[in-house]
Design a protein that fits this description.
Strand content: under 5%
Mean pLDDT: 80
Number of strands: 0
Number of helices: 11
CATH superfamily of the largest domain: Tetratricopeptide repeat domain
Largest sheet: none
Shape: elongated
Length: 237
Amino acid sequence: MAKGYRAHVKPKSVQTPVGKDATLIDIAEVKHQAEDFFEKNRNLILGGLIGVVILVGGWLSYKFLYQEPQNKEALEQMYQAEFLFEKDSFALALENPGGGFAGFAEIADQFGGTPAGNLAKYYAGICCMQLRRFEEARSYFEDFNAGGKVMPTLKNGMLGDVHAELNDIDKALEFYEKAASGTENELLTPVYLKKIGVLKQKQGDNAGALLAFKTIKEKFPNSPDGNGIDKFIIPLE
């Protein structure tokens, strides 16, 4: 033992067993109260537990017995429509892929609650845009549930395009600004900043247009839209 160190000695006046007995009494009392509470509220507690079990069981049944098979079927149906979409055959991809396969419109309608059916809404919206069926396109894009970092940007951008085609410039700008202010993306963000600039210039808001174009030059100079952006900036300075 080091010099100068004195072990702590518990004073004799302290009666540890009494404190221990008191603790045991407290624990017994708490246990008794808990048991009493359970007995008085047995039906409520058990009913609640049964309710939770039913909810969880119902969710698992829905997911594994219904949703996943539905999603698998939707994916199988989408194969032909995606093939035609890649070939720019938008009308066929939307409604009549052939070979007994459903088009994006039918898949979105029948399987819209599945991940594949949800994606079909986005495909259907693009098809309608290409076919100049803008109101239908807007409906599909609005119904599309965009998750992740990129898809919300694309959804807002497509809704901006729809409203621009419908000549609703204020609404188009609202969606383009949402797209541009979302998760920053080297490729997509300058696309929507440029669209903002063009529409603001069309509205006579040259200061707003200049700000959008300069933001592209400063933050995304090496993007496709950053190349040659000076030709939009110089006339406004």
